[in-house]
Design brief:
The structure holds two protein chains of two kinds. By secondary structure, chain A is mainly alpha-helical. Chain A has helices at 7-22, 31-55, 95-118, 125-144, 148-166, 173-204, 209-212, 215-224, 234-249, 258-261, 267-276, 281-288, 290-295, 300-320, 326-346, 356-386, 402-415, 422-437, 439-464, 480-495, 518-539, 545-553, 555-561, 566-612, 620-641, and strands at residues 63-64, 67-68, 71-80, 86-93. A two-stranded antiparallel sheet of chain A has the order 1-2. A two-stranded antiparallel ribbon of chain A has the order 3-4. In chain A, helix 9 packs parallel to helix 14 and helix 16 packs antiparallel against helix 17 (402-415). The termini of chain A are far apart. The relative contact order of chain A is 0.07. In chain B, a hairpin with a 4-residue loop joins strand 1 (57-59) and strand 2. Classes of the chains: A mainly alpha, B mainly alpha. The A-B interface holds A 77-80, 605-606, 608-610, 612-613, 615-616, 618, 620, 622-624, 626-631, 634-635, 638-639, 642 and B 157-158, 161-162, 165-166, 169, 195-197, 200-201, 204-205, 208, 212, 218-219, 221-222, 224-225, 264, 267-268, 279, 282-283, 285-286, 411, 459, 463.
Chain lengths: 642, 472
């Protein structure tokens, strides 16, 4: 079957954006919500069909000799630079993009449906759905991109739509500030990405993913550019620059500071963008260029990925211990889990069982999208009910919100790695992969597994058990449009662990066998259970234990509570150093010297133009004289030089 | 004799037939409004026929040459003229109808176009000269068309006098070149010159003949007076169609006839490009009258085009053709807007445009697209036009020239923004009142603006031009 229909996956969301965006004054709630949800539903069906026919349905050229290939559903040259280097627009289907074709539309559809209830009565209801359409379009464009340049274009569009959605409550100053912060920090990181793209284009002479994934091509690059600078080749440097872009979007330390603030956006947005889809774009990018990362200089750039991921995962987990805003706890947990995916890529090899880390990372990306979106949507429903983000205002909610309670519990168990829920399988594979490669990273990963269980259940017990505060009005379960997505995602959380990722999504496209390492299973379930029990001890009923622990940790607790003052460090650097020490003198220079010169040029131009206007006398005799003398003077100049 | 070979002249034949039918129609119809419609329809048919594929070949012993590139360029000119005719139909109805000169207007414009076609298809200097004259004389008549306006008569007389001088010098140059090479056929003259006092003088004289039509400094003085005095459709025709054809002709002459004098003409173009950009921009800064303003802006743009001729290879050809195509459309949009506003309100100054957006948003948007395209702001097509010209200069490592061009783009951005600021940001107590135009004008401006936006995004057009630009 002709693959032209895949274009609909992109065309429907962008038309939703245009339809809703151009008619946002005319369309009223809930019509726009229904249009958005139905449109997204159709997109999701087409995406599922595409993914299904790629994996099982015998899409032409999808599987050759048991190895999944990259299929270009379409690809047209957009601007040509040379025979090998061109900007293209197209649709690439391969295991990871087919996987994302399930993740993105599913979460987006659930969020659309949820928002019909959640955004009820908001003034910009239609505007919100228009932005969601734009975001979905950009994100799908990103995952389906056939080349680095196209991915960059959609990457930026994702940034823009994220900016619009974080700043959705534009009359709330904190939301506007957060949107600006997210945009600037990620833009700053994207600068690295762009440099990397240009370096790859200049030295590698191709942006095409098929070419860039070809081991023979990579071997050629390796031979051509040996160690160029500080022991690694220029291509590896390009990859590190690209990773900086990915780290910005995926909130890796130290570019993570925008993510907690981005929680100012509406909660469905946090679920869609800042938990399941956009923030994993960095992981996706590394996975997309994985052959390059893996083969250039024996994976030098991958080391950077691995250690950045490992540091971020434990760093974020520590901060998550001490936060009270439930969305921020989830935000730091997201950071920590993305750190997991990054480090899994970082420790992975390429072929066969060595590629376990790659597979585990993608697996975790998939399962995490499901349960983290569920956690956020459940948090949204809690916030909706008690009108507060802070856990001090919550407690005992299990009686009032049974569906939210159960689904939240399922997701919390999943993220803590309790079998048979999804998180257990993917996390277990990551632990095995880390153990094979690097004992230090394994240690961090293992520790964080326990910490995750602890802070997630701190959250759970503080919300649903603990002591009931005096609610002004009794909290109520959310409407059906909000609970149905919770149930669907809970279902996905339960079953998605059983998807045989090792035979579908692997680094080299070929299936390999995994087997349970029973020691590992025991160890990971053990530490998860320990974390849960410890949290239960401290937070199931109100008691003084947590206060005592807080006092015992003292300074360390305060540091964690203040997120290790990273924001303050940024503020110090930008304000005290850049603004005061560099920008202020530059501004003086600019105002007095540069502006002076510019004004001088400006008035000089005016002056010249005033003086020469006499030439344009209006007398045709003068014109003829200028004409002839022009010819003579020019001829004489050339004669002189002849 | 094989009559089919005459089909190589299909563009010219259809155009000549169009002129004949129009002459007859003018005699036989009483309602001169119909002539207007007949002319536009006939020209549209001619444009469509022109798009049919055409073979490469020569006629009349190489006097007449056609290649896919020449045919494509004729099509660009056709489309440009068609848009101008569409936009000016309301002007014709308002100004020409009372004088009963509708038919003449069309016949003269189309005759001038016919001259240009013969000129760019020429393979022989006499053919070139005849084409050039046929292209110029009708326009001089058109420039003085507004018989009751003193300025218009002045424009006509200035154009005809300057044109006479320039063709005199051109002929002098041609005769010098004939003296050196002993032939007037392009194919026989190529590579016969080398560097001598005589050949340099001849080249510069021929160059000045073309430079006059392109309005390069110091051969540009007629431009402002003629553009200001001539009726807007004629000014528009002069600034886009006539200039475009002359650039194309100059390119063929330099690349094919005088390749062995490259040293002379690269430095010539280099110097003239800088001079033209600065003079055009500095004069444009001070203008209040829009047609005069556009005249100097078109001088500055001509300087930019010269930058594209510097490398004498396929890249240069495609960059220049692409730029001309975009430039034609941008100027048509701007002239069209100016003309429609002038016709509706008789206002011709930038300050009169204050608050235009509030009363006439659509025409203001079209004006903005056109001006942004000339200023080279992405993603409108004009940006890519300029970009490819920079690429040509960069391929020859003329970085200083690029720097100077960028400085000039900045200056030009300033004065283009003056117009946009007046229309969009300024308020006025008595803005130009809301007006409506006829359907032809709407189609013309709408299509041209849409193409400008579309070409910025759809690049295969450039690839197509590039693929046929192998004139070597």
């Amino acid at each position: 079957m002709d693959l032209g229909y895949t274009a609909l996956i992109l065309l429907i969301p962008i038309s939703l954006f245009l339809i809703l965006g151009f008619n946002f004054k005319r369309l009223k709630e809930p019509v726009s919500g229904i249009i958005g949800t139905v449109g997204l539903g159709i997109t999701a069906l087409i995406s599922y069909y595409t993914a299904y026919s790629y994996f099982f349905g015998g899409m032409e050229g999808a599987k050759i000799d048991g190895v999944y290939q990259k299929v270009y559903a379409m690809n047209m040259v957009w601007i040509n630079f040379s025979d090998t280097l061109h900007m293209d627009m197209g649709i690439l289907i391969d295991p990871i993009s087919a996987m994302m074709l399930i993740v993105v539309p599913t979460i987006s559809l659930m969020v659309h449906l949820y928002s019909v209830g959640y955004m009820h009565g908001e003034a910009g209801f239609t505007r919100f759905f228009a932005y969601l359409g734009l975001f979905t379009f950009s994100m799908l464009g990103l995952v389906l991109a056939t080349n680095l340049f196209m991915i960059y274009i959609f990457w930026e569009m994702v940034g823009v739509s994220s900016y619009l959605l974080i700043g959705y409550y534009y009359n709330k100053p904190s939301a506007v500030l957060a949107a600006k912060k997210a945009f600037i920090v990620t833009r700053f990181a994207d600068f690295g990405f762009l440099m990397g793209i240009l370096m790859i284009g200049f030295y590698g002479e191709s942006w095409d993913f098929k070419v860039l994934a070809d081991p023979a091509f990579i071997a050629g690059l390796q031979a051509k550019f040996g160690a160029a600078f500080m022991g690694i080749s220029v291509i590896s440097w390009a990859l590190i620059f690209i990773f900086i872009g990915g780290a910005g979007k995926s909130a890796m330390f130290p570019l993570h500071i925008w993510l907690p603030d981005a929680m100012e956006g509406p909660t469905p947005v946090s679920a869609l963008i800042h938990a399941a889809t956009m923030v994993v774009a960095g992981v996706f990018l590394v996975a997309r260029l994985f052959p390059l990362f893996s083969f250039m200089d024996d994976g030098a750039a991958l080391q950077v990925v691995a250690y950045t991921g490992a540091f971020t995962t434990i760093f974020a987990a520590i901060i998550a211990f001490s936060q009270y805003d439930i969305k921020r706890v989830l935000a730091f947990s997201t950071m920590s889990q993305i750190g997991y995916m990054m480090l899994a890529l970082g420790v992975s090899g390429y072929a066969g069982h060595d590629g376990l880390g790659f597979m585990a990372s993608m697996f975790h990306l998939f399962t995490h999208a499901m349960f983290k979106a569920l956690l956020f949507l459940a948090a949204g429903s809690i916030i909706h009910a008690v009108h507060s983000n802070y856990m001090q205002d919550m407690g005992g909610l299990r009686k009032y919100m049974p569906i939210t309670h159960i689904t939240f519990l399922i997701a919390a168990l999943a993220i803590s790695g309790i079998p048979p829920l999804a998180g257990f399988f993917s996390k277990d594979e990551i632990l095995v992969a880390a153990l094979h490669d690097n004992i230090l990273i394994f240690g961090v990963t293992y520790l964080v597994a326990g910490m995750t269980a602890f802070y997630m259940f701190r959250l759970y017990f503080r919300i649903f058990w603990w002591n009931e505060p005096n609610y002004k009005h009794t909290p109520q379960e959310a409407p059906k449009t909000m609970t149905i997505p919770l149930l669907v995602l809970a279902f996905m959380t339960i079953i998605s662990g059983f998807i045989p990722f090792h035979s579908l999504v692997t680094a080299d496209g070929a299936a390999f066998h995994t087997h349970f390492n029973w020691y590992m299973v025991g160890a990971s379930v053990g530490i998860g259970t320990f974390g849960i029990l410890f949290a239960m001890l401290m937070y199931k009923k109100e008691n003084k234990l947590s206060t005592r622990f807080r006092a015992a940790f003292g300074v360390f607790y305060i540091w964690s509570y203040n997120k290790f003052y990273i924001d303050e460090i940024y503020m110090f650097v930008t304000k005290k150093i850049i603004f005061d020490r560099i920008a202020a003198p530059s501004a003086w220079f600019d105002r007095h010297i540069v502006d002076g010169a510019m004004n001088g040029i400006g008035s000089g131009t005016e002056w010249i133009s005033d003086k020469i206007k006499g030439l344009q006398s209006g007398r045709v005799q003068d014109y003829a004289m200028f004409f002839v003398s022009g010819v003579v003077v020019i001829a004489m100049i050339f004669w002189y030089y002849l | 004799m094989n009559w089919n070979t005459f089909l190589l002249m299909r563009h010219e034949i259809v155009l000549a037939i169009t002129i004949l039918i129009l002459l007859l129609a003018d005699i036989f119809t009483d309602d001169k409004k119909k002539v207007n419609i007949i002319a536009i329809v006939l020209f549209a048919i001619h444009t469509v026929i022109g798009l049919l594929p055409l073979e490469t070949g020569t006629l009349f012993g190489e006097m007449f040459v056609t290649t896919p590139l020449i045919a494509a360029f004729k099509n660009i000119l056709n489309i440009g003229v068609l848009l101008i005719l569409l936009i000016s139909s309301s002007w014709v109805n308002a100004k020409m109808l009372p004088l009963k000169k509708v038919g003449e207007f069309y016949v003269l414009i189309i005759a001038s176009l016919l001259g240009m076609f013969y000129m760019i298809s020429s393979g022989h200097f006499i053919m070139l000269y005849i084409g050039l004259e046929l292209a110029t004389l009708p326009v001089a008549a058109l420039a003085s068309y507004d018989v009751f306006s003193r300025k218009s008569s002045e424009a006509g007389i200035k154009l005809i006098l300057s044109a006479a001088l320039s063709s005199g010098i051109l002929l002098f140059g041609i005769s010098i070149m004939y003296a050196i090479s002993g032939s007037l056929y392009f194919s026989q003259m190529a590579g016969e010159f080398g560097y001598s006092y005589l050949s340099i003088l001849g080249l510069i004289m021929i160059f000045s003949g073309m430079a006059f039509k392109i309005s390069l400094v110091p051969f540009h003085f007629w431009t402002a007076d003629v553009y200001e005095g001539a009726p807007t459709p004629v000014a528009s025709f002069l600034s886009v169609i006539s200039k475009g054809a002359a650039v194309f002709m100059l390119m063929i002459l330099l690349f094919k006839v005088f390749p062995d004098m490259k040293w002379v003409w690269t430095y010539l173009l280099y110097g003239i490009a800088i001079l033209t950009m600065f003079v055009g921009n500095l004069f444009a800064l001070r203008q209040q009258n829009l047609q005069r303003f556009l005249a100097f802006s078109s001088v500055a743009q001509a300087g930019f085009i010269m930058m594209g001729l510097l490398s004498a290879d396929q890249l240069a050809v495609s960059a220049v053709i692409y730029f001309i195509a975009i430039y034609v459309l941008s100027n048509i949009v701007i002239f069209g807007a100016v003309q429609m506003i002038g016709l509706a309100s008789d206002k011709w100054n930038i300050d009169d445009y204050n608050g235009l957006y509030r009363t006439n948003p659509k025409i203001s948007l079209a004006l903005m697209i056109g001006l942004f395209s000339l200023a080279g702001i992405p993603p409108i097509a004009g940006f890519f036009g300029k970009f490819f010209l920079y690429v040509v200069a960069a391929s020859q490592e003329y970085y200083w020239l690029i720097f100077i061009a960028v400085v000039n783009v900045t200056i030009s951005l300033y004065y283009y923004l003056l117009v946009i600021r007046a229309a969009f940001l300024r308020k006025s107590d008595n803005p130009i009142p809301h007006f409506t135009s006829d359907i032809f004008a709407k189609i013309g401006i709408g299509v041209a603006s849409a193409i400008l936006l579309g070409l910025g995004i759809y690049s295969p057009f450039y690839d197509y031009i590039n693929s046929i630009s192998n004139i070597f």
